[in-house]
Structures are given as structure tokens and as C-alpha cells.
Amino acid sequence: MGRYVIKRLIQGVITVWFIATATFWAMHQVPGDPLSNEKAVTPEIRANLEARYGLDQPPLTQYGIYLKNLLRGDFGISFTQQNREVNDIIREHFPVSATLGILAILFAASGGVLWGALTALYRNRLPDVIIMFLVILFISVPSFVIAALTQLLLVKTNDVLGFSILPVAGWGTFTHMIAPALVLGLGTMAYLTRLMRSSMLEVVNTDYVRTAKAKGLPAARIFTKHQLRNAVLPVITVLGPAIAAITTGGFVVELIFAIPGLGRYFVEAVQQLDYTVIMGTTVFYGAFLVFMVIVVDLVYGFIDPRVRVS
Amino acid sequence: MAEITLDQDPGARPLGQSAFEPIHTQQQAQGLSRPSLSYWQDAWIRLKANRRAIISLWIVVALLAFTLIGPLLWRIDPAAQDVDQVSQSPFASRDALLVAPLEPWDLRALALAPPVTDLTLAEPATTQSVRLHWAQLPGVTGYRIYRNIFPADPDRALGLPLGEYLTPDRVTFEDRLDLKTQTYYYTVIGVTPQGLDRSRLQSLEVTPVRAITRAEAQRKGLLAEGDDVPLGTTLKLKRHPLGTDYLGRDMLARLMEGARVSLFIGICAPLLFVAFGVLYGAIAGFAGGVTDQIMMRVADFVVALPFLLFMILFKIAFGIGPGESGIMPMLIALVLLSWPATARLVRGQILQIREEGYISAAQLLGARTNYLVLRHMIPNTMGVILVTLTFAVPSAIFTEAFLSFIGMGVAPPTPSWGSMSNEGIKTMLSHPHELIFPALFISVTVLAFNLLGDGLRDALDARMRSRE
């Protein structure tokens, strides 16, 4: 187990280094010097940038400076906003995205397990048919459409009721978080429901379930102790990719619901071609996602002893 | 088969020599009752039995027809703007009243007419002009004229201020400001030395009729050159079956044009990266050993890269900022980032098939490598590849839509379903059709390919067969 952890961590570090390098060279491919953009860069920012990135140096030296800064945990400075460091931006906006993401993943995972188990229990009966229809629907509708339609629905219901059940957009209180978190988690929940259903159907026919029944265990106990526990394992394996999906899905949801998260900031930086912010946030996001996948895999190893062997 | 008959049987024949001959063990018992089916024939029969998959297949065919044949049948320029019908819903009226060209308002005629007591229309309201006339209010120094899209409420905002008069005897106003065929509420308020006299406001609800002049109608091809239809006739404007967008462009034509981008990315990218993945995986699986190890490590790295971040990064690296169209870079980036999943799958398949009995049998019979690959390996992985391909289409379409939505995909004026949704979302509350149609097309396409993929997987791949 220890060796496996170390191996995965080394792999993760190499991947992050690769992401950082790819980001650096991609930004260097941008035609023209980012500083000689038609956008006016004030002399202070230019001086800051040149000092930070050594822009007058050959590319390889710049790459060295860039890596050294990254190792110190310095993601760079914005060159569209004076005196704003990418670290500040991340510190300020990432907690918002993380809160939203955690809520969404909680919603997606619990909903996925619940609905998946339910459809398997009611296989080919009405609840199964209805839920699977909704699942297919939510897998096929892009998140921005769901987000927009949810907003439309909220506007209309708030209009009809005369008071606001949930705010349509914005951030601040817990009520602000509910609608975007639901929308963000919906696609992932649909996917997890599908996975849980097929995994549950597989478990139903296993020998240990038959043994448990033969022993005369109550159905509820078989369901929670034998079926649910084993069926949940494949769901945990895809939580890593699910976190990645929810993180990038957050870009759109934050944009539509006007949430001041890092995702929205990233999209805005992309639209304004704020190269340094794009570089910094890409590396940050990349590192975050790579390590989330590793964490999920390790947790999985803890839960399922069969994995530890291989 | 020979029968041993019993004595009590009335029509019994006496046992002859033939009854004691050995039964020939052959024919029917061994023969197949139905012709033998190839793998693909079997898969096709299975697929045909799956109603959802067949419906999806027809939807895919219909979408391809919509994209390829549609523009030949619906010959409207997707970039042409119809300024008379901006943000028209599909069900909106297309009537337009033929009117004379606008002439300055002759106020002397109005002076001869009977005096009015309240705010009235001096002439029927058209989108050309709305001419208002009201009675002079005693004790005012002037008037203010407002236009609103909600009923006037003296305590709240009165809407758009259109004009202010500083004399009490000017009691007419002509509004020609961007009139649409919707209901307006005009309000006239007297100005007194103490300020606005809100207690004596006059309000009028007006719904202008769409107007068109003869010259305009001829230019748009609604009237022939020598056609002398009398003024006041109602003409029908150009038909837009799915309405128009915020610039008055035909939605149907744009959806067809957008389908080209979305389906091009959605089909070409999976074809390319699945082909590359198959090649890569097959080489790795076939070569084995160190080559295989290295090749798979590379694939592992590419898998670990955050997909959408790199899509965005690639686009920037290609020097395509927001506001520039980049279908090719998007295609290349998709291919570069998406191949490893297929490569892994095919490698696993090849490794498995290599150990199968029929491969050893073929080798024993003297089959060469080429023959093995072409006759056994590829046909046996084909099912898995086809299923991967079908499931790759919706994810590619999603990626394109996502990128176009955040402004990193195709840029205006080129439409794609994603960018059309992005434009539609801004006017979602007032003109929902601009969002609903492109979103519907994305959803139906993705749904069709998902269901088709499910059906294909059930039909082609016994191991991956889902439990329904």
C-alpha cells in the first residue's frame, strides 16, 4: 500500500509538471508578446511582469524562472489588473467554487446511489421506467440549458407565488447555493444513477446475497449490509472523474448564476486573454484535479481490499 | 424413420425385410434448421429488435439529412438579416400593412378637426409612426411625453422619456423611435411651475401595426414591380418557420448551418481519434514488452490531463482568441486529447484475443500475421470500436457546445448549436425560442447517439451487454 501511494504521488507530480510545461509552451505559442498586445499595459505592470517572468531572457531561462516560481507556490500576477496576484485570486474565489462543488458532489453521489438502488429494486416497474427516463434526459441535456431553464422556472415561480422561494442568481447565503448546486450535480447524478443501477443488478445475483437470503436475514438487512455496500464500490471509482466534471461544469453554472467563483473568473480571464491568470489557474486546476483523482483512488483502496493486492 | 407397427393396428402392414435394416443415422438430426448467421447479421437482428435504438438510428439519419439536404431545400441565407422581424417567435403574425411613404405631419389639418378631450391617436398607429394628440391642460407650462411597455403608474417610473415641451399649446407628438409590434403605454404629463403634475396624467395604450411601404415591399420581393395593390392591403412578410434571432436571421437556416459545425466536430473528431486510438492500441498490444509499457505510460499521462482546460489552452495556443472562429483547432485539440481511452480499450482487446484458441488454431494452420490481423483481430474488436465511436459522438458534441458557450468555440457570424444557445440565453426571458431550438437540437442529437450506443453495445458486445 505504501509503495502504491508513493508511486501514485510521483505519477501525480510528473503529471502536474507536464501540465505546467504544456501550459508554459502553449502560452509561448501565442502569436506576439503578451505584453505588446493592443491592450495598453501600464508601465508598472510591465515592469512587474518583466521582473517576474524575465521576459527579456531566452525562453529556456524563462521556463526555469516559471518553474521556480511554481515550486514556491507563486502562480503569477495578472496583467490586466494592477497589483493583483493569481494567488490572491485563487484565495478569494476558490473557496466559493469549492463550496459549490462539494454541495454538488454530495447531492450527486447521494442522489445517484439512492436512485440507482431504487431503480434496481423496482426493476422494469414504473419507478424504474420513470427514473431511467429522467436519467437519459439529464445525461443528454447540456448543463447550460438546465441552468438556464432552472433560472427561468425560478423567475416564473417566484413571480406566481409573489415571494422568492429561491434566489435566481447571486451568492451569499445558503439559499443562494441550492439551485446552482442542484443544477451542477444533476448531470453527474444521472450518470451515477445509471452506474449504481447496473452495479446493483449485478450484486443482486451474487452468491453471497443468495447465502444471506438462505440464512434467513431480513430483506432490509441484506439490502443495506450486503447489496448496497458492494454495489457502491464502482460508484466510488468514478468519483474522481466526477469531481473533474463538476469542476469544469462549474465554469458554466457560475457564469449563468453570477457566482463569484474561480470557474467564472477563469472563463472571464480566457475571454479577456489575461494570459498570466489563465496560466496560473490552469496549473492550479490541473494540480487540484490530478490530486483529487489520486485521493479518490487511495480511498477506494481503503474501502475495497481487493484493490490493495493489485 | 422406420416405424415398428403393432399387431392390433388395423392398417398394419406385415413386417418385411426392410423393417430389420439398421437405421441410417444422418440427415435431419444433424442439419441446421436455419441458415448460419454471421456476427454482423446476428448483431443487426438484435439491433432491429431494440425499438429505442432503431428510432434513434432514424433520428440520426434525419439529422444528417437536415444538415446535408436541408440547405438545398431551405435556400435562405443564414447570415441575411430581416430587420422587420427581429426576435420573432415562430407563431408571431407576419402581417404587414401597405402604407404610403412617411410624410411630415400636417398639423394644420389637425387644427380643423374637432377638439379632443383626452390623449388620442391622431392617425392609426403603425410601426412607421405613432401620432399622439391631446387636449390642452389649463395651468401648465409644458408637457412631458413618456413611453413604457408596462401600464403607466403615476407613482412609479413612467418609462422612456420621449420628449419635453416648454409651451402649453403644443399638444401633438410624433413617436418614430424603434417601434415594434408590441403594446406600448404612452403617458403625457403636464409640467407646472411646481414640477410634474402627476395627478393629471393622460395615458393611452397603443399597439402599432407593422407597416411597409411599396418601395420596401418591392425591394424585399413581396410585391412585383408593376403590381398596383391599393394602400391598406395586408401583405405577408417572409416566412421563418422557426422564427428569427436577435439580429433577424432565420433560425431554421442558422440551425442547419450550425448543424454543420456541430455534427462535423461531433462526427469527424470521434472518427479521427478512434482511428488513431485503434492504431496506437493495436501497435502497443501487438508489440508488447517495453514498447507497450512506454506507449501505455504516455497514454496514462494524456488521460490525466484535465480535458477542458487543455482544450481552452490549445485554442489559445493556436492564436485563436475569443471572437475568432476555430473549428480546425478545436478538432485537432479534441483528437489530441481524446484518443487514449480507445487506445487502452483496443490494446486490452488485442491482448485478450491474442490468447484465444481460434488464433492458435489459425496459426497452426499456417496463417500469417497479416491474415490474423485482418481476419480475426480487427473483426473481433470492431464491435467494441463501433460502440466507443457511438458514445464518443455525444461527448464531442457536448465539448463543442460547452466551448462555444463560453465563447471559446466557433465565433460569430459562424453559428453552431452551442454558440446559438449562448446567444439565446441572453434573451431567454423575452424570446425563449432562441434558446430552446438550438438546445433542443443538441439534446435530441446527444440523446439519439446515446440510445443508439446502448443498442449497439447490447447487439455487438456480449461482455458489455447491459442488463435491462
Outline the structure in words:
The complex is a heterodimer of chains A (310) and B (468). Chain A is mainly alpha-helical and 310 residues long. Chain A has 13 helices and no strands. In chain A, helix 4 crosses helix 7 and helix 5 (126-140) packs across helix 7. The relative contact order of chain A is 0.14. The mean pLDDT of chain A is 81. By secondary structure, chain B is an alpha+beta fold. Helix content of chain B is 47%, strand content 12%. In chain B, strand 7 (184-192) and strand 8 (195-206) form a beta hairpin. The model of chain B has no long low-confidence stretch (mean pLDDT 78). The interface between A and B is large, with 48 and 45 residues.
Describe the structure using short key phrases:
heterodimer; A: 310 residues; mainly alpha; 78% helix; flat; B: 468 residues; alpha+beta; four-stranded antiparallel beta sheet; three-stranded mixed beta sheet; 13 helices; 10 strands
Distance between the termini of chain B: 45 Å
| Mean pLDDT rating of chain A | 81
Distance between the termini of chain A: 10 Å
Radius of gyration of chain B: 37 Å
Give me the secondary-structure category of chain B: alpha+beta
Low-confidence stretches of chain B: none
- Assign a percent range to the helix content of chain A: over 70%
Largest beta-sheet details of chain A: none
Judging from the principal axes of the Cα atoms, what is the shape of chain A?
flat
- Kindly estimate the percentage of residues of chain A that lie in beta strands according to DSSP: under 5%
Topology, number of strands of chain B? 10
Total beta-strand segments of chain A: 0
Counting helices, strands and paired strands, the structural category of chain A is mainly alpha
Strand order of the largest sheet of chain B: 5-4-7-8
Average pLDDT rating of chain B: 78
Low-confidence stretches of chain A: none
| Most residues in contact: chain pair | A-B, 48 and 45 residues
The H/E string of chain B reads HHHEHEEEEEEEEHEHHHHHHHH
Using only C-alpha atoms, the radius of gyration of chain A works out to 24 Å
Q: Describe the sheet with the most strands of chain B.
A: 4 strands, antiparallel
